Amino acid sequence: xxxxxxxxxxxxxxxxxxxxxxxxxxxxxxxxxxxxxxxxxxxxxxxxxxxxxxxxxxxxxxxxxxxxxxxxxxxxxxxxxxxxxxxxxxxxxxxxxxxxxxxxxxxxxxxxxxxxxxxxxxxxxxxxxxxxxxxxxxxxxxxxxxxxxxxxxxxxxxxxxxxxxxxxxxxxxxxxxxxxxxxxxxxxxxxxxxxxxxxxxxxxxxxxxxxxxxxxxxxxxxxxxxxxxxxxxxxxxxxxxxxxxxxxxxxxxxx
Length: 255
Fold this sequence. Notes:
Elements (H helix, E strand, L loop, with lengths): L1 H18 L7 H33 L10 H25 L2 E8 L4 E8 L4 H29 L9 H26 L4 H44 L10 H12 L1
Antiparallel strand pairs: 1-2
Helix pairs in contact: 1-2, 1-6, 2-3, 2-4, 2-5, 3-4, 4-5, 5-6
C-alpha cells in the first residue's frame, strides 16, 4: 500500500491547494495555489507511473522477473518531484504570484486576482507554467505507453487497467481544461475559478476512487463473501493456493 499512501498524501496536499482558491486572493494564497497544486499533481502522476512501471517490469519477461523494491521506487518518486521544486523556486523568485486588481472584460470591473510580477512578469509565468506542464506531460506520455504495454496483464483488482484509466483521465482533463482557462482567464474570472477548482477536485477525487474503491470492494466484500461461502460449504481439500493467499502475494508485488 506504499504508493496508495503517497497518492493519498499528495491528494490531501492538492485539496489544501484548492482551499487557497476560496476567499479574497492574497499573495500568500496565490503562492499556495502554485506550490501545493504543482507538487500534488506531479506526486500523484509519478506514483501512478511507478506503479505502472513495476507491473510492466514484473510481467514483461515470464522467465526473468526482477522485482523492484519499494524504496527504489520511492526514491524515483522523490527524484521526479525535485525538478518541479526547482522550477517553483525560480518561478516564485522571478515571477512572484501576487494579488492585484485586474479589470475583466466581461463586466468592465476590477477584480482582485492572482497575477505575476517581480523581474520576469507574465513572460516568466508563461515560461515556468508551460515548463511544468511539459514535464508532467512527459510522465503522462510514458504512463500511457506503459498502460498500453501492460493492458493484457492479469493482476489483482485489475491493477494495470485502473492505472491506465487514471492516467487517461488526468490527461484528458488537462487537455480540456488548460486551453479553456487561458481563453477565459482575462474575460471571465469567476467562470475560470469554477473550471480550475472543479478540474483539480475531479482529478484528485477520481484518481483516489479508481485506486481505492476496487481494492476496498475486493478485500472487504468479495473476499469476505468468498470466505463465508467456503466456511458454510464445509471446507475440504485444496489443490492450490487460496484466493486470499494469491491476493496477498500479488498485492505485495504490485502495490
